[in-house]
Write a sequence for this structure.
């Protein structure tokens, strides 16, 4: 089935709208990522400073005994894997 170019790809006439929409989505993504990064690093700092009353170990040390990595490293690893998956799916779904 043939799909017209106007529906799937930008043309010279629609390129400015595509560019505007793309930048708006990227700005929203970066704002969301920035907010999440602040929350993850704040959580890590709070866990490092707070201590258990009985053992006097920081909550971060206790969390690391159950987890393999720090929350910030886990966040970035998970984010990178999700972006990789999305990029692969986008490339696979695009017909040339």
């Amino acid at each position: 089935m043939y799909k017209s170019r106007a529906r799937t790809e930008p043309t010279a006439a629609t390129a400015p709208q595509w560019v505007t929409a793309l930048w708006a989505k990227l700005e929203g993504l970066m704002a969301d990522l920035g907010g999440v990064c602040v929350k993850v690093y704040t959580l890590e700092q709070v866990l490092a400073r707070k201590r258990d009353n009985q053992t006097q170990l920081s909550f971060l040390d206790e969390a690391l005994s159950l987890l393999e990595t720090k929350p910030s490293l886990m966040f970035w690893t998970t984010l990178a894997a999700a972006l990789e998956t999305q990029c692969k799916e986008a490339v696979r779904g695009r017909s040339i």
